[in-house]
Amino acid sequence: MNGKKILTYFVLILFLALALLELVYIPFFGVKPGNEAIPFWQHPPKVIILHAAYLISPVLVKPVDLLLFWAVGFGVWLGFRQVSSKNVLVHPERNRIHAFIRDHPGIHFRELERQTGINRGTLTYHLDMLGQTNKILAIPGSGYTRYFENGGKFSDREQQILSSYSNDRQRAILLLLLESPRTPTELKENLHVSGPSVSWHMKRLCHDQMVTVRQEGRNARYVLDPEVRTFLQDRGAL
Questions:
Q1: Which residue spans within 98-217 are E strands per DSSP?
Q2: Tell me, what CATH number does 188's domain have?
Q3: How confident is the model over 194-219, as pLDDT tens digits?
């Protein structure tokens, strides 16, 4: 048997296996999307193939999208449609991710993975699709990339505030400063953390212009930026 026949049989068997998975196993026995992680092999074929391409290289997603599904014609059988801003949220799991980001602006990847129960590879793929279709914004900062709904709801400055507010420790600091300016010692005592930990977080907050330092004699007090104060008060942070 020559190589061409082997390749033909392989493609045919792969196609039949994917069709069986899509049309028989998943509808009757597959795990339904919910709060639990879905095993990779139980996803629809279109997600499996495009996700596999993404793991090799993100730049392969579009070529595989066009060549495999449209040029070859598998798209009709597998129910695949070109992902665009108009239909990207039709996928139930992707829609759930988008809704979660909308309801938790500034959430970072690990927390999103934990809260949704979606495995890392699948979550990465769907976040990339949401980003490519401009449904979400990915904002790097403070060691994490944080995600926001891209609907013009928040300005760049507000996204920066939300990123800081999404960090548990920094949120506690911002809420204390929202009540009144504090010295480093007062923050340490109120938060029950070490001095170096307070200094580390305050350095980041000062760098991001969330707070400023006001010198009062020998003492320095941290003061919340007026714009940050107004934004947090408007959102009912108190």
A1: 107-108, 136-141, 144-149, 211-216
A2: 1.10.10.10
A3: 888 888 888 888 988 899 998 877 88
